[in-house]
Design goal:
With 217 residues, the chain is an alpha+beta fold. It has helices at 43-51, 71-82, 96-107, 111-114, 121-127, 146-156, 175-185, 204-215; strands spanning 58-59, 66-67, 89-90, 132-134, 143-145, 163-165, 171-172, 196-198. It folds into two domains: 40-112, no CATH class; 127-215, no CATH class. β4 (132-134) and β5 (143-145) form a beta hairpin. The longest helix has 12 residues, at 71-82. This is C2H2-type domain-containing protein.
Length: 217
């Protein structure tokens, strides 16, 4: 039966349409790296679970049980399997610099700009508080401005610059420079996609370790 015949056949009044409330997304709730929606209270958990790639971020003090994102899961394991509420081993402090980078890359309004760098300015300041300093590995008294320290490390202490041409062996420190190189010297060649490789992420940990050796406090 399509209609309820038990009701009066008199003139029917128009039905009011229910207004459907559209939930507005929480400010900053979209991860800029993977574009997933993230509740404000779950921001760190999202980084641990999706981006950090540390399978033993939290580890049982009694056995090899570990979790890459949940301290509570390991604590419950210790209580159930070892009948104790011991302290969960955590690597959060050790990886704090990396977590800070993901916080910037995932949720900062400037994440598109900042995530292009393997160590943003605020990370550099965490390791070197001086505005200029001589490289401890090179020796000598020549001081290097903090804004040029990253460039010095890439050019003098790492095996390659971050942006490498896909057509030849040339590499550059700046993205703009490698794009100019490809446009100038390889314009007539068969297109390669992408025309260059970006080694920032691949060499991030090596770069930061070298930064500590060269300019760390």
């Amino acid at each position: 039966m399509c209609f309820d015949e038990s009701k009066s056949n008199g003139p029917s009044s128009p039905k009011r349409r229910k207004r459907i409330a559209v939930k507005k997304p929480l400010a900053g709730s979209t991860c800029q790296l993977c574009l997933n929606q993230v509740q404000k209270s779950d921001r760190l958990h999202h980084i641990y679970e999706v981006h950090l790639a540390a399978d033993d971020l939290f580890k049982c003090a009694e056995c090899n049980f570990a979790s890459g994102c949940s301290l509570e899961q390991v604590a419950n394991h210790m209580k159930a399997q070892h009948a104790r509420r011991g302290e969960v081993l955590s690597r959060v402090e050790v990886l704090s610099w990396k977590i800070s980078q993901f916080e910037t890359a995932c949720y900062s309004p400037n994440s598109n700009r900042l995530s292009r760098q393997c160590n943003t300015a605020f990370i550099i300041k965490n390791f070197c508080t001086a505005l200029s300093r001589a490289c401890k590995v090179c020796g000598g008294d020549k001081r290097i401005d903090r804004s040029r320290m990253k460039e010095h490390i890439w050019k003098h202490h790492l095996p390659t610059l971050p942006f490498c041409c896909a057509y030849c062996a040339e590499n550059r420190f700046e993205l703009r420079a490698i794009r100019d190189h490809v446009a100038k010297y390889h314009k007539s060649e068969t297109p390669i996609d992408p025309p260059y490789t970006d080694k920032f992420e691949e060499m991030k940990e090596d770069m930061i370790q070298q930064f500590i050796e060269c300019f760390g406090d």
